[in-house]
Amino acid sequence: MATTGRTAPIDVPRGLKGVIVTDTSVGDVLGDEGFYHYREYSAVELAESRTFEDVWHLMFHGRLPDAAQRAAFTAETAALRHLPARVRDALPAVAGSTALSGPLAGLRTALSLAGSAAGFRPLYDLDPERRRADALAACAAVPTLLTALHRLGQGLEPVEPRDDLPYTANYLYMLTGQEPDPARVRAIRTRALAESKTA
Q1: Within a 13 Å sphere around the CA of 54, how many CA atoms are in the beta-carbon half?
Q2: What pTM was computed for the model?
Q3: What Cα–Cα distance (Å) separates residue 126 from each residue in 3, 4, 170, 176?
Q4: Which of 32, 105, 120, 186 has the fewest C-beta atoms lying within 10 Å of its C-beta?
Q5: Which residues are bridge partners to 27 per DSSP?
Q6: How far apart are CA 108 and CA 177, in angstroms?
Q7: Is 181 exposed, middle or buried (0-12, 13-18, 19+ CB in 10 A)?
Q8: What is the pLDDT of residues 44-102, one digit of tens each?
Q9: pLDDT for residue 5 is more than 80
């Protein structure tokens, strides 16, 4: 039972089982059937045959890219990895103030700073194109922010992103400071596949 102010109590199912929160075409998890999909594509098949950028494009545009679309999307998102100087300069203080709670706590603050620097506005003020642009910018910045906060927490300098590396390789590069070998990149890319098979 739950109450809302002075209104009468309402029945809330334990764990919200059977409660519809929203309708979406983005993805679904059918655990009893062992099926997890992104926009009606099997997540397992996507992990086996497509790049991270392909699936990212699918999530944002509702379709898998052809070669030209993949190249354009990859270039667009690579450019968005870079942080403005005022955000980069603030990261040591953010990492220091959230040292006990870890990089994810710092990410919340750092992403707010990045959003402010990029001029993000409330979603209800935006047209669909601006919402897409802001969401893409936020998604592209998160790995840069997170790896920088992690390294700062370890007493290391952040590593600037590289535009010539694919998403997964760039993430590992920013995390370690070394260009990863292809086997390690493949291992990270297919981790989601392994987890979905054992879920």
Answers
A1: 14
A2: 0.78
A3: 34, 31, 31, 37
A4: 32
A5: 38
A6: 23
A7: exposed
A8: 888 888 888 998 999 899 899 999 999 999 999 999 999 999 999 999 999 999 888 87
A9: no
One-letter identity of residue 106:
G
CB 73 within 8 A of CB 139: no
Q: Give me the helix-helix angle, 52-61 and 128-153, nearest 10°.
A: 140
Task: Find the length of the chain.
Answer: 199
Distance separating alpha carbons of residues 170 and 147, to the nearest angstrom: 10
pLDDT of residue 89: 96
- Could you give the maximum distance between any two Cα atoms of the chain, in Å? 61
Q: How far is CA 143 from the centre of its chain?
A: 8
Confidence band (pLDDT; 50, 70, 90) for 21? low
- The residues, any chain, with a CB within 8 Å of residue 36's CB and separated by 6 or more, are 27, 28, 29, 30, 42, 43, 44, 196, 199
Residue 32's region, left for phi above 0, alpha for psi from -120 to 50, else beta, is alpha
